[in-house]
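Note to self: user wants both folds in one dump. Writing first protein now.
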Amino acid sequence: MKTFNDQLGNTITLATPPQRIISLVPSQTELLFDLGLEERIVGITKFCVHPYHLKSTKKIIGGTKKVHLEKIKLLKPDIIIANKEENTEEIVASLQEIAPVWVSDIATIEDSLHMIAEFGKMFSVRTKAQQWIDKINYGHADFIKFMEGREPLKAAYFIWKNPYMAAGGGTFINEMLRLNKFVNIYENRGRYPEIIIQKMRIQGDPDVVFLSSEPYPFKEEDAFEVGRFTHHAKTVFVDGEMFSWYGSRLVKAFDYFKQLHNRLA
């Protein structure tokens, strides 16, 4: 028997490396696949879209906020992978009666690397995990060099409309903004504050406004509406996965960020 601590400090005990995995987190599903664990994944959420073919080969057990407990029980998982932000405490508590639940809590790149290393230990794929850690560390260091000499820009990153909501402090999105030298004007307003866009000028007047591709599908008219309440901000549609998906997606994110800066130049 081996014990492992998740990122909330909870201890789980495993007799052997899990062979039947359920993932409730899209970015962590992608990571499990990239660690070579496709055959061990038995259940995913309807939002687990990468790699795309998993939606037709694995059992869909609901969403991230609402799961089908009976479907999960029938899959007889050895472990369930969850996340503090994506899944509710109530869901996790219910799932703990079915199988061990490992919960991630990620706000920084270091948190992400820790998760990958723990997956390497739990699923006995240490070499593969270390390869991904090395790729991320290389990409991270290379991107920091790319950013040398670039001036900071004030930014607002919107994730929702009706009401408008932005990414604030303590989020992985905010960490990615910092990495890109985007100074989040809503960093001190909580994790996901509601925003009255008519007040944007007095609340920071951003140089650039990002409209994320997820979870809300912003349109051109939204960009026009938001842009009206800044002085001269650029309004840019961005790939939300690159800013919010931790794990192996980070390798692609660093290249995406370079392209983004070239668009803003």
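First done. Writing the second protein, which came from a different request thread.
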Amino acid sequence: MISIIIASIDKDQLADIKENIAATIGVEYEIISFDNADGKRGLCEIYNEGAKRANYELLCYMHEDISIKTKDWGIIVAHIFNEDQKIGLIGIAGSSYKTKVPSGWFCSTGERKINYINILQRYKFNEAKTKHISENLKNEKYSSVVVVDGVWFCTKKKIVEAHNFDEETFKKFHCYDLDFSLQVHQTHRAVVTFQVLLEHFSEGNYSKTWIEETLKLHEKWAADLPIDLERLSTKEIFFAEKHTFKFFLTQMKIAGYKKIEIFKIFWRSRLKNNLSLFLMLNKEIWRS
């Protein structure tokens, strides 16, 4: 019923997640794993090939450094897809607003919550600490989002056939999830489910590669962003764009970008077509 696709860099973690899947999924399945320990292949390329090999209509893409805690999660996933045929993507973390400024899936509007997540997060710097992060203010089984995080998500084979992972643009290990989400959003709903819980053994990282791939993502989708499912106020949108950009700017500085380099990047971008937003970005860069 479900084809599970994994790009593996650690054979021990792969063995562990295979055992975990067998104990929890609750439906017929297959695992299609790729040894990518040398890092020579990007996730978009691997994920497209996985879809071509898949024998089942439902696909689940997941990292190997996780442990799924929910019994019969495969039944839950199948039920969600069957309940609403417009649903084309299911994740466990995502946001209902995707900023125009460069960002990951997460952003903030201040008081109003627009991120939806249900995950047990472990941290590399403190292996003894695991935090249950849960944001479901609407108290729903699943909530509509624009984009989902790539740690675990499910879709349908026919959707991947219609919206291939963009392996020409994204040749590494970042933004495959956000780009695919934005493609799916054109024809289907993306949702975050609160019925499946998993533990993730490592937090994300914001390397220079992540910055470069995120800039590519936002250049590709500049004409479509922002996307707002919450009908935010002008004030909330400005807050989200400003504070998200401040975070991205901080990561650029940590990665070693000089102020003049940052100015050049954004002066070349299509963000200058939005004058008020562009002036705000320049002000934040100048202050940094």
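Dump finished. Worth passing along: Residues 2-232 form a domain with the Spore Coat Polysaccharide Biosynthesis Protein SpsA; Chain A fold (CATH 3.90.550.10).
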